[in-house]
Amino acid sequence: xxxxxxxxxxxxxxxxxxxxxxxxxxxxxxxxxxxxxxxxxxxxxxxxxxxxxxxxxxxxxxxxxxxxxxxxxxxxxxxxxxxxxxxxxxxxxxxxxxxxxxxxxxxxxxxxxxxxxxxxxxxxxxxxxxxxxxxxxxx
Amino acid sequence: xxxxxxxxxxxxxxxxxxxxxxxxxxxxxxxxxxxxxxxxxxxxxxxxxxxxxxxxxxxxxxxxxxxxxxxxxxxxxxxxxxxxxxxxxxxxxxxxxxxxxxxxxxxxxxxxxxxxxxxxxxxxxxxxxxxxxxxxxxxxxxxxxxxxxxxxxxxxxxxxxxxxxxxxxxxxxxxxxxxxxxxxxxxxxxxxxxxxxxxxxxxxxxxxxxxxxxxxxxxxxxxxxxxxxxxxxxxxxxxxxxxxxxxxxxxxxxxxxxxxxx
Lengths: 139, 262
Description:
Number of helices of chain B: 6
Largest interface: A-B, 42 and 51 residues
Oligomer: heterodimer
Helix content of chain A: 55-70%
Distance between the termini of chain B: 50 Å
Distance between the termini of chain A: 57 Å
Strand content of chain A: 5-15%
Largest sheet of chain B: 13 strands, mixed
């Protein structure tokens, strides 16, 4: 009989997950109890993670074309949601999900010119100083 | 927030709700990716090729510079591989060079002898020794080979010892080679005049139009001990020695010089 795990989000919503799906998470695997609270992750995000786990527990072959298409659609979400998903998947240590999500961000950054990377992720611009440092590193 | 037309994936740009007031938009969007912890960000950067993507991300801010150039993203060459499935760790310099992307840094573990015979490097790479002193990481070039490393691209060597049993240590064909804090050792009394630590066959750079910025071929040596060999440097191209400085220490000579086209 498979156990049922309970995942609690930061806004106190509980998700019930079958054993096969739950064990995709290393954090849950190594946890002693079947009730796990995931801090800093809201229900909306946790729900999506559970959805991913359920889908991947169902299908045996992850190389399957259908699953790949489903995955591709799963990761094409809003930036807001994407980064929160990464944090959640990282906390739960679901390696494949983290890989897929971070690959997506990598693809978003890839081949953009500096200007567009900055405009997309505006932080401090320390151009000159940084270029000097990079030169010293051999770039 | 206006975004330039060079964006290749406008899909996600449009999904930003216009309801967010302009004063809030830049701060809320800028916080998003920086909310991720270092591990996640480095994981994202590992998917990017060093040149040009990681270079561009490194220019965004100090934190990204630190993460994009972090040793965890380097390739490592280690003598004994504990976990064969671990990505980024290679048993030999040749395999690491083959797997590296242009712009990658390869960290060669200290201790033990690494074999390096006629390894051709055709992409820009940085090879760094993992010890505190260059003497702790040794690359040995066996008798049969012409040289340990042959450079056809802009590269950097740091903190390494390269020892050639018969041939030359470094063969420079083209590109800008930087040698910093290394030790180059050749056969002490060579019969063969080709036993020279650094050999450069780079010829004159062809004249390109002024709008194209090109780095001239050359070799830059600093804080490097050179021992043995008939002479320290041999050039058959158009490069000449410039700005030579030597420190005569008790047991060795430490050099600084450049090889450039006059």
